[in-house]
Please model this.
Amino acid sequence: MYNNPMHHHGHQGPQVLYQADPQWQSVIKHKREELMHALHPHIGHTIRVTTIDGHTHEGVLINADGHHVYLQVNSHGHHHGQHDGHGRPIYTPAQFQILTLVLFELLVILLYA
Model:
């Protein structure tokens, strides 16, 4: 943790609870650019994401904006047995949700062919 040298006890201004080490700034910016470069060519493709907390999400990559990754996920996990005339499932818009994930909480991103 980086301690703010301008913070003095007894000062009547706002109290700094946490401040990131300034040296991390260049590393974070580089990682953000690296992630964006890796993700943008795969918008529209199905990916699986694992977060640093061990949560796994699978869906279609809709967008990545430098702060968040947006996945279109099937909210029901199945298609309720409805099929078109060719045996393919019918999905209604209400069955899909956009899941917003914080970019820097993503640990592993897998692309499905």
Q: What stands out?
A: The CA atoms of residues 33 and 53 lie 23 Å apart.
